Structure formats: C-alpha cells, structure tokens
Amino acid sequence: MKRIVATLAFGLGATLLAGAAQAQGTLNSIKQKGYISCGSNPGLAGFGVPDAQGRWTGLDVDFCRALSAAIFNDVTKVRFIPLSAKDRFTALQSGEVDILSRNTTWSMSRDTALGLDFPAVNFYDGQGFMVKKKLGVTSAKQLDGASVCTQQGTTTELNLADYFRANKMKYEVVAFASADETFKAYDSGRCDAFTTDASGLYAERLRASAPDDNIVLPEIISKEPLAPAVRQGDAQWFDIVRWTHYAMINAEEAGITQANVDQMAKSSDNPDIKRILGTEGKYGADLGLTNDWAHRVIKLVGNYGEVFERNVGQGSPLKIQRGLNALWSKGGLQYGPPIR
PANTHER family under this entry (predicted)? Predict the structure, then answer.
C-alpha cells in the first residue's frame, strides 16, 4: 500500500513540476508557436461547442479569442482542444493547453491542491435541477426518493449529496462519465431528474427530444463561480487572463462597443476610456503586450455584455437573464478594477 501511495504521489508531483516549468513563460511559448491552446467544452451550447464544420462558438470560446486578439491582433490564433470534465485538469497541469476556458467552478480545493489559479469569474452560476413536467414536481424539495442523473468528476456530485442530506431526503445517483451520456440518460427516462449548473440546464434543454416537456426547478443549491484556469507559477500569464476579462467589463461600463471602439479611441477625452484603449499610459507594456491590447479585444470580440448577449443572453437560443452577471452598477457582481 505504501508503495502504491508513493507512486501516486510521485506521479502527481511529476505532473505538477512539469506544469510549473511550462508555466514559467506561457506568453513566450504562445508567441513562439503562434497560437493559444485553449481547453474547451466540446458540447455545451452557449459556452463551448463546435458546429458540423468545426467552427467553435460560446462565451468561453470567445474569451480565448479575446486573448488571441490581445496577443496577436487576430482572433484565429487559437486551437480549441476538446476536454472532458475528467481530463481537463490534467491537460492544463501537463501543459497540453495554455488555459482552461471550460465552464469550470473555482473552488478552494482546485485552487490550492491542483496547482491551478483562477484569474477572474466570467460567469456566476449555481447548480439546479431539471425534471419532466409529467413528474408533477415544482420544487427540488419534492424530489425525496428520486433518481438523479449527474456527471462524474464534477462538483455536482458533492453538491447533490450535500443538498439531499441537509434536507433529510433520500435519492439514487445515476452517474455517467460524460455530460452527453448524462443528459441522454435523463432524456430517455433512466432517471427522474437531471442536475448540473443552471446555465447547463438551459443549454441541455434545447437538446431534449421534447424541450417544452421539461422544466427547470427554481432552487439553486450551490455557488458555482465559473472561471478560466491557468497553471500556477506564471504571474504574467495570470495577469493577462485576469485583465483581459476586466478590460471587457470596464469597456461595457464605459459604453465602449465593437461598433464605436475606433471612434472612442480617436475622440474621447474621458481619461478612463483613454487608459482602457491605450491612448494614455503604458499599461499594455506592463503585461508584455502592446498598449492597444484592450482596443484589439473590444474591436475583434466585443465587451463583456456583447459576448454574453450573443452567446447565452437574449440574442441566443438560451435567453439567460444577466442576473448576477450584470454589471455591479446594475445590481450584478461583474466588477472590473480600474486600469490606471
């Protein structure tokens, strides 16, 4: 037993050491190879999914494109690597991908034990339940004795156990390795309820054999701050990822859009806008980028609100309300520290 434990510990340590070495110069590595390797979800509408021609779309996908714009002034310098929930952290730790932008919950154990950092929350979410209307259930507290489909290797399993234990209810877990298997099992009637992040519930409902026959229950049973992840040990890359998100937030707050960013850069006298767009100060240089890095991001990808609306908001089939993902000035939690 001691030999097995020692072997496992050595293996994890070797993976983390390899990742740490890789992390020392992520930006330089990206520039040398000419693209960003972006670990992505291959099957979640609104967040990450390729179409039949291999064209990727989604909120997480657009964030990797924003990084590509910041570095290369070109949104095509990204290679999307499809990763399962089970394989995603190993792929990042080993250096297979430069960033994990894949609807991943930022938690303490992932932050401290896996050798990863989470620069910023790009979507505030929470776990919920979906059931078929014919079940006659309107609240998660009516699921006592239900069978629940969930995905292995995710935070949903622990949250599910905690919720039923806290409410003194019994349930049966029906777990699957992939998100696709999990939802197909629910849709075919192998379980009474399906649980995942609320954003995922709305996305998966679109794939149901009869979408209107399913309802999302009102309870949110957990906090799921979804964030891109990078390897620990590379402060420069961490800062680039963090401030790219904050630049998109600050641009939305300042009214800078894809349509007006060029004009704003030419004519605005607002010092905050001038700093965001790089016409004042040398804030890009501090990141190892050009001073117009945020201008590139907004022009080629958009501000946070534009990315949200076209992928998961009212301009998308999901039609998710901004809610907690609204700007702080509009009752939400999205808040960008100042660029100054």
Answer: AMINO ACID ABC TRANSPORTER PERMEASE, AMINO-ACID ABC TRANSPORTER-BINDING PROTEIN YHDW-RELATED
Instruction: Please name every residue paired with 176 in a beta bridge, in sequence order, or none if there are none.
Output: 151
Residue 2: exposure state from Cβ atoms within 10 A (0-12, 13-18, ≥19): exposed
Task: Name the nearest CA neighbour of 213 among 318, 147, 319, 135.
Answer: 135
Give the domain-ending residue among 168, 191, 222: 222
Q: And the tokens for 311? A: 């992928």
Domain residue limits at 100? 2-123+226-330
- Which string of b and e fits 272-295 if b means at least 16 CB within 10 Å? bbbbbbbbbeebbeebebbbbbbb
292/330 Cα distance (integer angstroms): 28
The conformation of residue 229, written as its DSSP 8-state character, comes to: B
Residues 254 and 190 in one domain: no
Residue among 217, 222, 224 at smallest CA distance from 202: 217
Structural domain includes residue 337: no
- pLDDT tens digits, 296-330: 999 999 999 999 999 999 999 999 999 999 999 99
Number of separate domains in the chain: 2
CA distance 122 to 46: 13
How far is residue 308's CA from residue 216's CA, in Å, rounded to a whole number?
A: 21
Q: Which residue has the tokens 């979507």?
A: 123
Q: CA 50 to CA 310: how far, in whole Å?
A: 16
Q: Of 162, 189, 222, which one is at a domain's C-terminal end? A: 222
pLDDT tens string 126-138: 999 999 999 999 9
Predicted TM-score (pTM) of the model is: 0.87
